[in-house]
Amino acid sequence: MSGAFDALMRFQRETEALSQVMGRLGWDQETMMPEGAAEQRAEEMAALAGVLHRRRTDPRIGEWLAGAEAPDELGARQLAEVAREFERTARVPEELASALARTTSLAHRVWADARATEDFALFLPKLEEVVDLSREKGAALADGGDAYDALLEDYEPGTTAADLDAMFGALRPRLTALRDRVLGADRAIPSLGRDFDEAGQLAISTDLARAFGYDTNHGRIDKAVHPFSSGSGLDVRITTRTEAHNPANCFYSTIHEVGHATYEQGVARALLLTPLGRGASMGVHESQSRIFENQLGRSRAFTGWLHGRMEAEFGDIGTDAHGFYGAMNAVRQGYIRTEADEVNYNLHVLMRFDIERDLIAGRLAPADLPEAWDTRFEWDFGVAVDKPSNGCLQDVHWSEALFGYFPTYTLGNVYAGCLHAAIRADIPDLDDHLAKGDPMPAVLWLRERVHVHGAAKEPAQIIADATGRTPDEGPLLDYLEDKFAALYGV
């Protein structure tokens, strides 16, 4: 009956609006909240998490679903998404949902302090709480199945750890072989050997955000320890960070987060504040941020324009456009995932994927995380970890119970590889635009084929429809090998 469908959609609209408020509390916590407000904010977020949990398990949802008739194909997709969320949320007790919200709110601040002071022991008690609660949530969602797969479903519906294992297993040999060739190459790549003031970096950062289509009338840019994007529809906010000696961190953090934000801003208005009014999955989300950051933002054409913008802001930066392209794409062994080059990046993700599965499965105790991390890192990268902020304390994800999120970064890179190949085929003069600092032809291509759909299609289907092929790792690997073989002469 249409009455049941309409009542359900009205109810869901209020739930989605409250969920946006919850997200805004999280944004404020990481950007503007007074440090002394942490305990009260934890209670606020726990209370709102309880409200949302009660709404998402309201018995009337089941009654409406039983009586609703979808008016069209989109309505059927709305009902399917509501039913999926209703069934999953009902498996998690309200007390557990509230405890997770309260604990992660507190754990985030403790993680930031532990990272700043290089003190893993400070973070360990909160990490143990988060892992225990996440294991409990995973077990409740799995209902006898695999707990990690159940958590992964929150970020990439329809994908299992076994699926990712197969894909990652195909990626690893060619990635490591390419890395070894590049690192063994006899070719010097320049670096920017001076500091750049924060005001200049942030001015360029704002130009970059607007160039990639970020609507600042419906968003804002702030600073955070770990850059992120928050919100959807008409209020989508991003953060970035600055380092005096590494302006690329600011520029590409901004472009990356703008990829997320532009996706959310591009969802069709008719879908906003509905169950489909957001990105289809974190894998599709990461495909947008990674293609913005890398295939477009680090291309030879675009870095040529960025070199000119740098010189306009800072004067002589010590290298020409060719050297600047090399500096923005240099392959170097390093500790930090978010600063990793395109060749090494996915190897960082694959390591985290394995570690967090072990944490959820109980094969790894939180107290043993530093040793496990350091051992695995040295095995994978040949470098000993020197301090916790360069090791297991570098990422915010586990303080926020985001188990299952990490693998979507590499899945997003795979999707981005497929999308980039299709964009290049459809827009053969793209480099002419990028050389003028104008990536909008590619952004508009993505908006039409990816962004407007929100979650109205399954993630892999969105990529397949946009590119005309089932997504696989081939285009990404071909792109990486072509780019870095040319840059390093290998």
UniProtKB/TrEMBL annotation:
Protein origin, superkingdom: Bacteria
Keywords of this entry: Carboxypeptidase, Hydrolase, Metal-binding, Metalloprotease, Protease, Zinc
UniProt catalytic activity: Release of a C-terminal amino acid with broad specificity, except for -Pro
Cofactor section: Zn(2+)
Coiled-coil residue windows: none
Residues where Zn(2+) binds: H256, H260, E286
InterPro entries tied to this protein: Peptidase_M32_Taq (IPR001333)
Active site: E257 (proton donor/acceptor)
PROSITE patterns: PEPTIDASE_M32
Family: Belongs to the peptidase M32 family.
Protein name: Metal-dependent carboxypeptidase
